[in-house]
Amino acid sequence: MSGEKSAPGGAQGAPDPRRMFAEECRSARELHPSRPLTQSQLAKMARTSKSTISRVETCSGPIPVDLPALLDEVFATDGKFKRLYEEAVAQSFPTLYRRRMSLERSAVVIREWSPTIVPGLFQTPDYARAVFTGGAPRASGDEVSAFVTNRSARRAILNRDSAPDVRVVLCESVIRRCLCPPEVMHRQLGALLKDGERPTVRIQILPFDAPAHLLADWPVTLLTSPSYATTVCVENYRTVGIVDDPDSVRTALRAYDELTSDALSARDSARLIAQQMETLS
Q1: Residue 209: what pLDDT?
Q2: Long-range contacts of 62-66 (CB under 8 A, 24+ apart)
Q3: At the topology level of CATH, where does 17-90 sit?
Q4: All structural domains of the chain with their residue ranges
Q5: Distance (Å, rounded) from C-alpha 140 to C-alpha 136?
Q6: What is the DSSP string of 37-85?
């Protein structure tokens, strides 16, 4: 399980994006050009409830995933609420993991390898809940909810106009292992197939009989920035190692290229995922 979890805000004295989101929402509502809006009126315009607007403005609980885009639409704020929301989500991660999340949000190319579970960027809420509760069985309901909300929020980058190119290689064990109820795994595999149809996403399965490789031990993500510098993120128990040494990055890129060569094609991988779904029906 990665370091994603609910946590207090950043360093003392640093801006709190969650509170800034609340203040911007209240300010935009009260200073609306046509007339000041009540919470009920804003809720109707944003297709949500008055209680949701109230919780957002008082920083009570998480911000619903779809609300920032709706507020940007209502107030014509050109992505301001979406940016604040992304900052608020990132602020909830442990410090080292925040850098990894920042790199992911700005990446133009994302290469994922996972030998164990579906990567967080592609997890359904139910699958994410199973992953979290399996590793933290004593977590409270609020902690589980916060984890699932934060993880689901990461998918926003896949829907951007300038979405990154994402390449995913999964060990065959990822789609074979049922670490959640069969119906949850069935939906998760279906979501993988749907994501694989995106023009910016390619998903491949590395079969059981593939040869050994450098990246076998841990989930690895290679994130390429707009300046085409690549950073390697290696996830392990409750932390993430970040590697940007040029020689190490080149070695990791070569290893990833070998993975994609040894993996099934995207088309054959989709067929294998669909076949596994049938066994869960």
Answers
A1: 96
A2: 62/145, 62/146, 62/149, 62/150, 63/18, 63/21, 63/88, 65/149, 65/152, 65/153, 65/156
A3: 434 Repressor (Amino-terminal Domain) (1.10.260)
A4: 17-90, 94-280
A5: 9
A6: PPHHHHHHHTTS-HHHHHHHHTT-SPPPTTHHHHHHHHHT-TTHHHHHH
Per DSSP, 24 falls in state H
Are 166 and 131 in contact by the 8 Å Cβ rule? The answer is no
Whether the predicted model's global pTM rises above the 0.85 cut: no
Rounded Cα distance, 183 and 278, in Å: 11
Extract the residue ranges of the chain whose pLDDT is less than 50: 1-12
159-216, pLDDT tens digit by residue?
888 999 999 999 999 999 989 999 999 999 999 999 999 999 999 999 999 999 999 8
Instruction: Name the β-bridge partners of 241.
Output: 234
What token pair was written down for 220? 């690895």
So what's the pLDDT on residue 32? Answer: 93
Distance CA 251, CA 244 (A): 11
What is d(CA 231, CA 76) in angstroms, rounded to the nearest whole number?
Answer: 35
> Rounded to 5 degrees, what are φ and ψ at 39?
-60, -35
Q: Given this structure, which CATH class describes domain 94-280?
A: alpha beta
Query: Cα 77 to chain center, whole Å?
Result: 24
